[in-house]
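Re-run with default settings, no changes from the original entry. Doing this only to confirm the output is reproducible before filing.
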Amino acid sequence: MHGVIPFLLRHGYWVLVVNVFAEQVGLPIPAFPVLLAMGALAGMGEFSIWSTFVLAICAALASDIIWYRLGRKRGHSF
């Protein structure tokens, strides 16, 4: 647990994007702990809260676009 904070300080934005994207794609990886940790680090002034917010939304939207395209191409029409 002691190595998590230095790792997030070094690679925080990348971990956030990959984690949120992986959860939204459907992998059983919770994004809530990383979002909470990044919010805490942003509150301490280590990261920008707005960059964290925008990157999380972009990662979620990217996976939603993938699911939408797959549904349009391979889904059944009623």
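The chain has a mean pLDDT of 92. The chain has three helices and no strands.
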